[in-house]
Design brief:
alpha/beta; ABC transporter transmembrane region fold; Rossmann fold; 6-stranded mixed beta sheet; 22 helices; 9% strand; elongated; disordered C terminus
Amino acid sequence: MALLVRFLRFARPYRVALAVSLFLVFITTGLSMPMPYITGQLIDKLTKIYGAGWSTLSAQSQSDAISGAQNYLVMVIFILIGLAVAGSVIGYSRSLIMMYLGNRVVFDIRQRLFRHLQRLSMRYYERNSSGRIMARVLYDVDAVQSVLSSGVVDMLSNLVTLLVVFGIMLYYGITHQVWVLSLIAVGVLPLYVINFLAMQSKIRQAASEARDQYSEVYSTLAEAISGIRVIKAFAREQSEARRFVREIRESIDLNIRTGKLRTILGINANLITRAADITVLFLGGMYVLGQKMTMGELIAFRSYMGMMYGPIIALVTINDTINWVMAAVERIFETLDTMPDVQEAEDPKRLGVVTGNVTLENVGFYYDPGEIVLQDISIEAKAGTVTALVGPSGSGKTTLVHLLPRFYDPTEGRILVDGHDLQDVMIRSLRRNIGMVLQESFLFQGTLRENIKYGRPEANDEEVVQASIAANCHDFIMEFPDGYETVVGERGTRLSGGQRQRIAIARALLRNPRILILDEATSDLDSESEALIQDALDKLMKNRTTFIIAHRLSTVMNADQIMVLDHGHIVERGTHAELATAGGLYARLCEVQFKRAQEKVEEHLEKMRDDRPAAPEETAADAEPQQAEAQGSAETEATEEEQATKTDTSEDGAEAEAGSSEQSPEADEDGSD
């Protein structure tokens, strides 16, 4: 009951429309009540004309009696037509009002749900599938609409009708001394309740399982659509189709099971109705023969019985529907009652444009108690400096940078920006100062211009173009026939990986954040795309406090400080020159990448030798100097790589490392956190 009251609060802004609709319910119910009585009176009037003494009347008297009966018949027909038309018009008006009210309430619920989902922390989305979340916003809210649009008013209309007809049944019993008929008509009502209670728990359980399975269908469908590239790449279309068919088949089976139980409920109610009607018809016929009732009164009585049994069956059915809807409402409020893990302070400080000093003091974090992800992390990042985070996969790098925009809050320690504890500042104002470029850049369905302006919608066209030029994406944008108005497709499917990355960089440039997070922004790209993106990133990082996550060490060599993480701890810190010669984890990573680079160079030279056949006039003596020259070139390049990654601290050595590392594949530890 408390849940229903809470739900009806959504209709509070539309209480006037609801009150008008309820008023119309009483009018339509009142218009329908006289019809059986008027019909009964008409039948009695017509049948009495040819009663005793008809043959003794003169021809003129008989003609007058027939004429009077015809006039009465016409008058009654017009009255019945008037009542029917008035009831239909009022019913139509009532339906329109409730349709408006239902859709408005559904709009408000969906809007509130979506806004609340936007406030929820990342942890909520990690624990709930996208299909299940979509089912809450779409399927469950649709169930609510069906009840609001007609169910509530119909329930009230049926309840009013039931009470009025119940009174009429008692009236007949008193005035006509036909208590038995009234007792039979009213006495079967508890049987409907017993029938409903006997089936209620089974129907509710079956309906609940069917709704849960429907959420699984949503999840499977959403997953298959979002992962269509992987499905096609591995030729798993048939497998995914079979998986989806299994889910919908199970959903259908559960729906059929629920339908069977509801059908049994309806059949039992229909049997009760028929038994009562036949009994009343038999006893009523005996009363008519015994002249305790007229034929018209019996017909009117049976009509009122139908008007009473119809609403009681509808109330039983709608009660089951309400239970189904209340389960949906319960899930809706379960979502609305979910509080974000990241809470804003009661009186948060509003950050303006920050300088960019970031401090982490003894920060610790875990997703679940006992599973430590970060422990005792302390970092001092001055404004405008570059801090690189390196380490094996699963060492906590991505989790660490996700603490900066407060996707999560640390479980220990604190994080400061310009001396302000992040838990004391307004989250929105904090995130306005942070830009992120991730490994897989997400683009929204829309135009290139809309995606670039996403972080700053008020930017003008000139600013968009300038950001695109700086991000090295203006040229390829202008190659499209529609230029900046080109629709990128869902998730940017019409663009290459490098193009999506450059659009993401342009988006970050246009936002002009003071703090920048780059999470594997240049991984999995070809050399040309990586060079363009690295150039764009250099422009983006200028005069900004930057945190870089990278497995390719060539991208972090010029960082002001490098933090090496392993199992949630900072095990080393320093510059590239310091760490490359320290003999620790960073040096081992350098060595692994050097070996991979050397292997790649040797493979490249071997391929060149295989692809270039010797000329007929070329002698073995001529070929030997060329092979010696190629071998010497490979050894020289490998030596330069080794010197850059291990010992050379000069600027030239750093440039040599960057040049060779850009050609090298990622270390064995590559992956996402």
